[in-house]
Design a protein that fits this description.
Elements lengths: L2 H15 L9 E9 L15 E9 L4 E10 L8 E11 L4 E11 L13 E10 L4 E10 L3 E10 L2 E6 L1 E8 L2 E7 L3 H15 L19 H8 L3 E15 L2 E12 L10 E12 L1
Antiparallel strand pairs: 1-2, 1-14, 2-3, 3-4, 4-5, 5-6, 6-7, 7-8, 8-11, 9-10, 10-12, 11-12, 12-13, 13-14
């Protein structure tokens, strides 16, 4: 799932904990996050890219919000790996049903190794419904730029309060979740071509007379083009975040296990694990 959605759901946790929050005032939320590997709607590259992320979101009582941030891959390059600016609107129809619409534009360096580098624009429509025993989330995304892709994510989660520590303000909870993501993969075509260019420029590829553009690890452009247009299952995701909140502050340790449903690289494992740490503070 997208990084921005993870941050958004964590904002909701902070808001739920802050029952005394004045809803007539604007809030500023700062976030810092570490994760063991980056993924794009459940898809990963053969190389692991742990990263750190920073984000700031200014939210108004009307539901309008503006966000900005970026992240740095810890084992690739010496500059910022991505920066982004976003605007969105959330509306609470009632205590159970919430919906939102958001647009994000990302900036990637020219030699980015990331799957999402070809789709630097994203329009997201989301909805959440709180049932008596669990919450259902639905997210629709249109990602476009050099390529255009569509994604849909459907998930169920359950927040379980484990109790308090030291005082009533220190609340510990877990939110196990199951999520299914499906979509197209036009972005993968650009990734294959750009990866081949980087390998050739580093002297790792074959000569021009021996290699056609798009051949990487035995995959050809023709093979890629025959699969990217199909709307198919991308991943099953099982998440287990552990949250500790204290008023305006939230800390989270998370584990995600993903089963990939759309393998294209031979040396990408069908099962993936992700470990994360994050802190959030709301003013």
């Amino acid at each position: 799932m997208r990084i921005r959605l993870l941050i958004f759901f964590s904002f909701l946790v902070i808001s739920n904990v802050k029952a005394q929050q004045d809803s007539t005032k604007a809030t500023l939320t700062l976030a810092a996050m570490y994760n063991s590997n980056i993924n794009y709607y459940g898809q990963v590259t053969p190389e692991k890219y742990p990263y750190v992320l920073f984000n700031a979101t200014l939210r108004f009582p009307s539901g309008l919000y503006f966000s900005g941030g970026g992240y740095k891959l810890l084992n690739y390059g010496s500059t910022i790996s991505e920066t982004d600016l976003g605007v969105g609107y959330d509306y609470d129809f009632n205590e159970k049903f919430t919906a939102g619409l958001a647009y994000t534009h990302s900036f990637f360096p020219a030699n980015s190794p990331l799957l999402q580098a070809s789709n630097n624009n994203n329009i997201n429509a989301s909805a959440a419904y709180q049932w008596p025993w669990f919450k259902t989330d639905l997210s629709l995304d249109l990602a476009f730029g050099k390529q255009t892709d569509g994604f849909i994510s459907f998930g169920n989660s359950k927040e379980i309060e484990l109790g308090t520590v030291f005082n009533q303000k220190n609340l510990i909870s877990i939110t196990p979740a199951i999520e299914i993501t499906a979509g197209t993969t036009h972005f993968y075509e650009t990734y294959i071509i750009e990866k081949n260019k980087r390998q050739n420029s580093n002297g790792n590829g074959k000569g021009k007379s021996d290699t056609a553009p798009g051949i990487v690890n035995g995959s050809t452009t023709e093979v890629v083009e025959n699969t990217v247009n199909q709307f198919k299952l991308l991943s099953y995701n099982f998440k287990l975040p552990l949250n500790w909140s204290n008023g305006n502050f939230l800390a989270e340790a998370s584990y995600q296990f993903s089963i990939l449903g759309n393998r294209k690289e031979e040396n990408v494992k069908h099962q993936q694990s992700f470990f994360g740490l994050a802190v959030y503070y709301q003013f």
